[in-house]
Model the fold of this input.
Amino acid sequence: MRSADSLGTRWTMRGLILALMTLAVTLIPALAARADDPDRAFSGRFLLVDMNGRTVSDETYAGKVRLVSFGYTYCPDICPTTLNTLSAALDQLGADKDKVATLFISIDPERDTPAHLKEYLASFPGITGLSGTPEQVAAAARNLKARYQKQPAENGDPAAYSMDHSSSILILDRAGNFLARMPHASAPDRLVERVRGYLQPKAIEGRP
Done:
């Protein structure tokens, strides 16, 4: 005759095995779904495609101070001004520009394909264009606290729309944390001063 203690132990083990089997049945499909969906599994600030067709994230630029702006290539005024400011700042940074990643994130993925971004940004050396799916772009803007909205053309042409959007230049530290937000028309030397300050080893870096 088995003792009560022996029977209790067997029932306890059986219950534990059943609980583990139930947990496995629940978790395995969820984990598989995340593995098949890289966007859901990603937890950084952005997951986009650069102008060379390479998938990148904020972690791609780890170790560098980041200058980030949002815009689009059909922008008539603000974006060219921003890009000129960034280009002039990069020239003034000299050798220090290798310590900086300068990113232009398009909020118009419908028209700004990687190839088109690359052609457009050829006039602004040192600036990397990023785009992606509408969902990826929306996530990047949300995580970096930028806003944009599509505006239909007055003549009703569906291809002639414009985009209202945030115009600030964001400065992020080497770990991707927020440091500063500067106007798009800032003087390049002022931007350089801020960046060089953050490049110093003893600089106090901000938090997101």
Notes: Residues 31 and 41 are 9 Å apart (CA to CA).
